[in-house]
Protein 1
Amino acid sequence: MDKKFKKVVGLKKTEFDQLVCSGEIKLRKARLIPLQKPGDEMVLTSVLLSSLRLVKEFRKMIFSSAKIPAGGQIFVFTEVIFSLYPDSRIDGLLLVVSGGIIKDAAIFEMKNGRDELNKEQMEKYSRLAKDCSIPKVITISNQFVSEPTQCPINVRCPKGVSLYHFSWSYLLTIAHILLFDNETNIADKDQVEMMKEVVLYLENKKSGVCGFNQMKEGWKEVIEGINTGKQLKLADLNVNDTVLSWQQEEKDMALILSRKLGVFVNSGDFKYKNNLMLRLEDDKKKLINDKVLTSVLRVRRAISDISVIALLENV
């Protein structure tokens, strides 16, 4: 193929394969059992993408959250380099192919352990996605959000590119719920065994997957400040840390409860579904003015929601 690479969505899959053969796109296939050392981000990338391809119900739940079409063939790759961005190696790439044409695609950026998403890197990947006609960027880390449409950091995406985020704990919770005795069971017995292997790997302490286990440094300073009469300010980084810690703990509680009950427990107010930054600002004002932090946990089929209020001022 003589023409230079310009886009992904709209290409014939055979043309994509030719670009790989010519070196215009460099990648390697994602494997369910990768050979890299445990705990490496590429291992997690390979395990996750392979399980999406191999376990229908797991794929369906994640695709639904990221608005990826359910039909078509799924192709997954790791360590992807596009000739348009030769200095950027993408952790993962997912293609949805129907009738031989790539109908949808998503870039995956993974972080594990204590590594957090980087604003500059994510904005670069968003531009890459735009330039390569890839409509979705999906980030996965140990950072928590209430909804996949929220992002743990404030990133500007170009028009035509949608950003989604999942925590590793959220993905692990989906896997647990699929293995729970309920209506969301995995139908195929072989796929059940595959899902069990994925869960075993993700729960291994060496995998780099972890829940929220420590408040940020600013939490202690804010609590002490409240109880000594110190006036808190919106611009105070400690206030920001305190609210972020509370929000992360809230989602971790919801996911732990989900795994115990076998159904998803959602958290947070609906009005913040697509805007984590708005909730951050509102919670900071509530902390400063009322000296409280609040959460709502919504359990499917429960009579009412669970309201949690943290009273931060000694009375």
Protein 2
Amino acid sequence: MKKNIALLIVTAFALFIISELSVRVIDWRGGHSFWSNAHRNFLVRETKPVIPYRIYGWNLYKTIGGEQFIVSVHGERYPLKKPGDAFRIVTFGGSTTKNFVDGVHYPLLLERRLQERYPEKRIEVINVGNSAYTTIHSLSLFMFDMLSWNPDLIIVSHNINDLLNAYFPHLTPDYSNQYGSKFYLPQYKNRLTTMNALFGWSSFYWFGRERIGDFLSDIGYKSAGSYRRASYGNEPPELIKQLFKRNLETFAAVARAHAIPVIFGTQPFESSEDYFDIAMRHRPFNGVVIWPLHTELIAHHKKLNEIIKEVALEQNEYLVDNNASFNDDPSYFVDFVHYQRKGLEKLAENYAAFIITNNMVK
């Protein structure tokens, strides 16, 4: 019996060492150091610093050969010091602005379209949209980063991510009811447990922990199979309407103080419940969020689009009604708010036509 137990322990230890070496060799072949714990850093992000004001995101700046560049959400680089012949546009939004299909996103398509129309200019359209970003995230970027870039025009298109805060418990003016939760803060994954303390040195441990965690989470979401709903009425909560309008008005006020024109864009919406289900059924926060009835969600989203129109009119800023031009056509969408390539092309054409018609490239 003692020999069998000893053999079992030795075998388990040998398998663990083999697995550890295998993961580290794979990391090494992928460009990481054999000795560093790449999985721990990449998957758990324990060493990823908090970037003040940006909440979460990517590194906006890169220095190459002594010159500093702006880096868009998809890696395109632009000189931090704007060239004299450049017309610089910055696009703000959430995942619908970040939306990337077949190697392109709408700001890149817009850049190409405007560059064709104005070959004598250097057209720059910098995409700073990011998944889950709201008006609050974009305002932070605008005030603490983008103003230093001297943009000639900004495009702002938000809706669903701001609206989602109304369905998380205890809505707060800074949206911390959502973005202070464990679903968004990486430090919740970095807590020091006994297992982490014992095996934190092991790449195989972190690799296995993430894969098993993803597997169990997926089973849990699929077994739950849906989300909770309750009736909110056809008007979204009053506070979210006030906050959304306040933030858009702040965008306009800051831009006006720096003589930067603003195009506010409404957010297209595909109204079928099946398309909503594609995007939201297995979201990890569905155990916390209480969704409205689907007909109410459509009405709430429409109301926030109406607020965008109101702000553009009241603040004497430009408006592109993307939602009207998409006309609830499912061929533009992959789910209720994200786009196929055709949708990205439609967005780019909407903005390009508006900019050209209004002679905005000076």
Protein 3
Amino acid sequence: MTQEPPAAAAAPARRGRLTRAAEFDAVTGLGRSVAGRYLTLRFREAEGGTLPRVGFAVPRKVGGAVERNAVKRRLREAVDRNEELLQPATDYVFIARAGVYEVLDTQGFGWLSEQVGELLRSASERPSGR
């Protein structure tokens, strides 16, 4: 007689992720955008989804792999802290611009979290379109 392992406490699904190139292309090509100096947010109403989905694009202009991954990690955390601003059934893509790593290094995480919040608030004021 084998015992089943105890069921792990599943974290509530708060949001999904954009992972495929076609998903990114749909948002960046057909969606709306709001921009700051170092970040651009593209967003679009999701087709058939209920949860918001978020993706991150950090190009090589930002820096090497270490810098790009650091920016992505901090962007994910900043979105987590501003999660209440995400609209249901909407896809978001945050695009980092050159210089963001240096500014993040000098200004700190609070600055990035504030920037993400401002972009999400601006996006919620604009219709997402299809």
Protein 4
Amino acid sequence: MSHRIVTTDAVIVGGGVAGLSSALSMSGEVALVSKSAFGSGGSTPWAQGGVAVALAKGDSPELHARDTLSVGGGLNNPHAVAVLTSEGPARIRELIKRGARFDRDGAGLVFGREAGHSLHRILHASGDATGAEIMRALTAAVRDRPSIDIHEFTNAVDLLVHDGRIAGLLAVDSSGELVQYVARAVVLATGGIGRLYARTTNPIEATGDGVAMAARAGARLLGLEFVQFHPTAMDSDLDPMPLITEALRGAGAVLVDEHGERYMTGVHPDAELAPRDVVARATWALIQRGQTPFIDGSAAVGGDFPDRFPTVFAAAEQAGFDPRIEPIPISPAAHYFMGGIDVDTHGRSSIPGLWAAGETAATGVHGANRLASNSLLEGLVFGSRVGASVSASVLPDPAKVPIPSVELAVDDAVEAAVRSIMWEHVGIARDEAGLSNAVRQLTELERSLGQRSGEIANMVLVARLIATAARARLESRGSHFRSDYPDPGVAIRDSYAGASMATVA
């Protein structure tokens, strides 16, 4: 395979909110590597729910932090939470100056409420197109920055490491040519792992590439067992499953069973606005009993659906439902990854020269369960901090390293097997037998791939690491529910890290 060399100061892998925020706060020459078309790939454009920020009257970063800690299962890093909530307002104001248009009324910005929040603090754009609007503003800003070189349709293959330090990145471009990026720093902002599951709201790009590359390079990983399942994906044959934003429940929509009876009222005092893990388990339990759960917004939203929730309305129409007058069948689906590459609040990993931001990073800001609409804010806040950290670091020139041979794994059967194993055994409810079965099957799949690399290999590796971490945590906490260990243990962050450590070997 032919190859070419690109020399730059830093490489950012990922074109979502975290990657773009990193690029915009970084000095020097930057190569921005994106799997798909710049501005359209990844999870950010799909984000419906909004962005949480303490800007409303009567709100404060301290109150936002309290809510974040409340749903995190006792495993949040309080310092990371304070950084998120205190720096969030400045990042949102900065975004507005870049041209982001959030929903307003005559009094100013409109704030909604979602599960786990004690106040109305969620900003939206065009009702349920918040992520797309944030991406519009950020991509325009990036295009205006001559020092950022955009590399579209390029798949990162592996980190290049020499003497325990980053030397660059290996990737394959759209023509199939191998590209060696020679750089002092690499930022991984590759997003989540939803594609590892048969039911997910994530785009097809969410294959855990950043975590896999970091793991192979020997970086420390954290919290891999904590996968958040969104309770209200539209139950249809579409893959990915259409997300029904949490903002709809914030607007008064209710969850009902086949008989039209609300099933969350007896489960949690906040009913439909309980933390996501609680709602997801209650919804899954209903399905396990052979019933079909629904979300009903006909009374709360009714004829206003096309204007207030246009994305949800369009998806429902495509599936043959009219949410203005009837409920929509739902199912939990893999939605967000709280685990990832263990980093500090500046995004620095355990490997010199390697930073991570956004969903692929684990600062501990989310603990065992992410508070609704904190993800976009996380990308803005920590992405900006990563860019500043890289710029402030004195890094040696990268070493010249030999380019390994690359054979990409392309096997639809392996991908389908991974997704089935993860949904069946490493999903909403887990136990020793299922997790051990998953580890065994995934290990066999890994061996079958040999030295081949690429997305499929990344999926298999990260799936095995998640299953291994889930088997090691003998308790139920946040999004991690063990039916054989239903009670929480002692919430110590050191044990959080220890239970999550899973090696490549």
